[in-house]
């Protein structure tokens, strides 16, 4: 039973009704026997949520679209993960000091490795240059990839991300030439292309897929996107977005509580929820 001393956690975003964060965190907290409450708040202005966090003493926020970048100026301290990628998906109230973290990128790398795909030494193509792409790209850089290419709709975003990555490892980002798809070993869709309800959309031409390619889609609704379905048909190793979502949430759980996350429970909770929703 929750009391006035129960620490409060929340996910903030707009829209937020679709979020699985309350389910995955609530299930994990209950499994671990921890007295925390986790809720969802639809927030239109990031600074108002931060003011509420300070006033009410909330323990932490999970942060989703569209606040991963706009929330940064209102925090007291940024973890190195946020300072580099300029995307924040986690805020922890550390005795009144609000600290921003990014668990998206590390969660993506954990998901890749769990699926048997070691990104180190690979030539990678990332689709998208928004917040998710930034977080994943910097984590891939840390994982030791050999080269990185981008397929992006927003040229200014792509230029800024390329500049930031090349500043850390000069020349890591190379041009996406017409024949580049023949050279890449790992494809990451870090864009919303293929997400429900536009489930027939493909982020790349299907002819780019070949059996030597590993294909990772951060989209998790649907679990099997059109991209992953086409990739499996070509014999590619495929990694869906459930692993990344569960792993980034597990890292958040540990930041919020200081306890080890029940990872198996969290993975199963997300996958079962999505599979059940897909059957309706």
Category by helix and strand content: alpha/beta
General shape: globular
By CATH reckoning, the class of the largest domain would read: Alpha Beta
Helix and strand element order: EHEHEEHEEHEHEHEEHEHH
Largest sheet: 6 strands, mixed
CATH superfamily of the largest domain: NAD(P)-binding Rossmann-like Domain
Strand-residue proportion: 15-25%
**Distance between the amino and carboxyl termini:** 33 Å
Total helical segments: 9
What's the quaternary structure here?
Answer: single chain
Q: Radius of gyration, rounded? A: 19 Å
Element layout with pairings:
Layout: E1 8-13, H1 21-32, E2 37-42, H2 46-56, E3 60-63, E4 77-78, H3 80-85, E5 90-94, E6 97-101, H4 104-114, E7 123-127, H5 131-142, E8 147-151, H6 155-168, E9 186-189, E10 214-217, H7 226-233, E11 237-239, H8 241-257, H9 263-278
Parallel strand pairs: 1-2, 1-3, 4-6, 7-8, 7-9, 9-10, 10-11
Antiparallel strand pairs: 3-5, 5-6
